[in-house]
Queue: 2 jobs
Job 1
Amino acid sequence: MTDRIHRGPLIAAATTLGIGLGGFVDGILFHQILQTHSLLSAVYPKTGLPPDVIVRNMEINMFWDGMFHAFTWIMTAVGLGLLWQAGKRRDVPWSGSTMLGGLALGWGLFNLIEGIIDHHVLHLHHVTETPNHLVYDLLFLGSGVVLMAIGGALIARGSPDRRTREMAPAAGSSPAA
Amino acid sequence: MRKVLGNSASWAVVVWLALAAPAVACPFCNGGADGVNEVQQEIFTRHFWPNVLRVAAPFPIFAAIAVALHFGFGPERPAVEARTSPGNRTETPHD
């Protein structure tokens, strides 16, 4: 058995999964439930135009939302694959705190990087397509920073954990056994 | 008998769904009076691939971060030593 441990594979897997799930939160919450924006809603506006143009723009946005969700799905699938690989390794500590931290870190990274690129650099959309969108865009970036800080703290908290998956008690077994 | 009826009903639903006409979500743009699909015309322009790149722009950065995290955390202190330290399990089911 190897006598060195590697936390990187679990952190990378959880972070990748967190990026994908964070993307789905964005898509489900903002694109679909609240409908405050779509992926190209700053390019193809959904308000203030004749009804036929609005409907056409909504369909165009639906297509690009689908493309975005496809990329997000790929991130999630890659994260699951990495997690599967990490779980098979005997030198990777199987820490719940590290896992949760990675998920939060990934979600925060998604909000921060997607926010900077799509909202501020490329201007594809804003959190709300309203004149005061900057406030909401900055809040979105702020939420990313907060989530990353929480994720980093949880990963640090999981640092002392050295139990690998093999060492974890089997399901249904008594902890005292 | 009930199982057979249940199966028949399930198959009937599947066949009905397969034969149902697709819904037209956008009556203005899916081949209207002039038969031109405005949505497809607007999506598949010379801006299509640039738009794909824009939509995908954050994802290479995410991938690079994942790679950095995977390999950036180098090997840490020996697990054998760690297992003997207080607060950690001292035995494994396989020992």
Job 2
Amino acid sequence: MKISVEEVEHIANMARLYMDKKDIAPVAEQLNRIIDYIDILEEADVTGVAPCFSPSSMENVLREDETTASSTVDAFANAPEQADNFYLVPRVVKS
Amino acid sequence: MDLCSLSISQASDLLSKKEISSQELTTAFLDRIDAHDGSINAFITVDREMAIAQAKKADEKIARNEKDLFTGIPLGIKDIICTKGLKTTCASKILETFVPQYNATVMEKVMAQDAVVIGKTNLDEFAMGASTENSAFGDTKNPWNPEYIPGGSSGGSAAAVAAQFCCAALGTDTGGSIRQPSSHCNLVGIKPTYGRVSRFGVVPYASSLDQIGPMTRNVTDAALMMNLICGNDPKDSTSAKEAVPDFTQAIAQAKEQGIKGMKVGIPMEYKDMDGVAPEVMQVYRNAQKALESMGAELVEVSLPHSRYGVAAYYIIAPCEAGSNLARFDGVRYGLRVEEAGDALIDMYKKTKSKGFGKEVQRRILIGTYALSAGYYDAYYKKASQIRALIVDDYEKAFQQCDVLLSPVAPTPPFKLGENIHDPLTMYLGDMFTICANLAGIPGMSLPAGFSANNLPVGVQMLSARFDEMSMIKAGYALEQELKAGDRFPEL
């Protein structure tokens, strides 16, 4: 499968990455080399094989809904901008 | 006495006997870091005052005869493990100023015994890499020869232990990131069974693959550190409930009974592989002979799907990474890049593009592509099906043998800069280590020899899930027979 320059732009946008026009073609080339290699997966027969998403037992782990020490840490201590226990972000709706 | 060459068990013994103090030991390491880390760059952060204060507290505990095994022992901590009040950068510009408000569970265990944090070690950004050349804070050099890479991603931890900047270190391993740098720096490194060690407080790269583990001077120290860090944690829902054995008992067994009759699996697929250096194969064959000479039985096994391991990993890990790294958006922590008039989405894009390095962005792009509409079945689902087949391969293999033996990396350490512009070649370097992460089984790297130009080459031992004991037992016997770990590089 070949990833086109347009596709790289589309993926970058979905991943919220800004890319310089001049970087897109070299990135597309690198991604294609990697994807070409990954395409060896096509030759493996996986008919009827249930996928494994994690090596752990995948059981729900429940606990009492109680306050613990970690729920009282200062969640805003590392925030770039905050006020009155809110995170501040740039304007979302244009005035 | 050369304090900096001490292992955990040696230092702990001398501290118990009050022949040395933790402050002496800690100061010796800090002075050595001051003298030599300028040329190695093993550390991102060293907080001298904090380390000395911790050592003082440890000495007071020892004076009260309340010493634990790790009390006063200086350790290096990979800078992806959250340390309360001490900067944790993940070697990324995006977290350059991040100071965690809590400790990772492993750090709670380390601090409960009053061990000393000598510093936070360098890594490939967010643990993505195999050479520690992807750090935003400069490359780490191999103490055996500073023109060569120390391996990665836990290259700072490996270099710090090899350069005698600390007794031992903690690393993390997602595709080989403890085992490969341990091999390249002549250390013992263990990636425990997935779930053995709580991942709470470790900045996640690929959550179904990441695991914390020890990087030490010898197998005994590795077993001691396993005793310290393993165990169920309610804060990590993937942490295992299996009982944790005393891992040093595996060493006691090796001493008492030897390893006669143990079955060591040799994967037939690894006998004749393209792209594996003859020196690596030589060291691998020597290790097989050494095990045989001690009475172990070599058994041929097959891992037919191991050839798909690298391809499956470079789908699964980037998919998980793309999702995990979405949290770095300039809102709750870390860097924010914003210009007047920017909308929210512009701020996201500028922050991520300035904050993440090239390799991290590359993996986010691969992950986003593989999970995007129309490609999910061809990539993520297919890779996860291959993963299930790799799990089966190991289950079958461990019905025939107690441990598996393989090389760690296909080549000895390469030169800095040699592969940095060739991501695929770098990825293929993980071919022997990656399948253990996909299957969740434990793996261990052991010093086993040297290349013609005097660079370390290790071997890897693997065992079945939750059977680290077999691996440690055989690993200890092999260590005693090969005696390859008994030396330090000259700085």
